[in-house]
């Protein structure tokens, strides 16, 4: 790609991966745009972690997966092509997040109250990732409610991912010696 600007979006339309022109305000764009925003916030979270932080590799895997999820959402189902060919998230990907959440939960104290976002910069950024992830999930579900195909593994992955960011925020605060801020 040699050119960044094309001028083709100046009238409020953009192209999906399939080449179809759609409004920049359509639900599909809201869905994969929120995934893109989440990926950017995740990049900021990574920049706040030390180079030897154990979560770096796992978070980088999530970034790669989010890029695939965004590409999946940016592609309309092709006529005659089986929907199973559009899978980008597997049950194993979801299980990996669940296992990591369980590992973190074994390292942090049990919750006894609602937790306010805050603490270290990294923990606060993990909370931002959590809330952007929840918005992305709502946009993806809205797309499905409008009758568009959405892989159920994508919705499960994004749902689980927001839980991971919450537990990660608590872990990052614990590692820094900062207690959860109770409501």
What would you note in describing this structure?
- The protein is mainly α and 183 residues long.
- Helix content is 58%, strand content 5%.
- The chain has five helices and four strands, in the order E-E-H-H-H-E-H-H-E.
- It has helices at 27-48, 56-73, 91-107, 121-145, 152-175; strands at 13-15, 21-23, 115-116, 181-182.
- The strands form two sheets. A two-stranded antiparallel sheet has the order 1-2.
- Strand 1 (13-15) and strand 2 form a beta hairpin.
- Helix 1 (27-48) runs antiparallel to helix 4, helix 3 (91-107) runs parallel beside helix 5 and helix 4 (121-145) runs antiparallel to helix 5.
- The longest helix is centred in the last third of the chain and has 25 residues, at 121-145.
- It is elongated and about 50 Å long.
- The termini are far apart.
- The model is unreliable at 79-84 (pLDDT under 50).
């Amino acid at each position: 790609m040699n050119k960044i600007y094309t001028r083709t979006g100046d009238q409020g339309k953009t192209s999906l991966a399939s080449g179809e022109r759609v409004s920049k305000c359509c639900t599909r764009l809201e869905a994969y745009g929120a995934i893109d925003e989440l990926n950017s916030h995740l990049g900021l979270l990574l920049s706040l972690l030390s180079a030897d932080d154990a979560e770096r590799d796992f978070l980088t895997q999530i970034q790669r997966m989010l890029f695939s999820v965004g590409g999946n959402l940016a592609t309309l189902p092709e006529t005659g092509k089986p929907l199973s060919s559009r899978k980008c998230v597997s049950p194993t990907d979801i299980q990996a997040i669940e296992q990591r959440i369980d590992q973190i939960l074994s390292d942090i104290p049990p919750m006894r109250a609602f937790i306010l976002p805050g603490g270290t910069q990294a923990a606060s950024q993990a909370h931002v990732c959590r809330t952007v992830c929840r918005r992305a999930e709502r946009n993806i579900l809205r797309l499905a409610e409008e009758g568009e195909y959405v892989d159920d593994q994508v919705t499960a992955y994004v749902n689980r991912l927001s839980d991971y960011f919450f537990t990660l925020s608590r872990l990052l605060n614990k590692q820094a010696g900062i207690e959860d801020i109770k409501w």
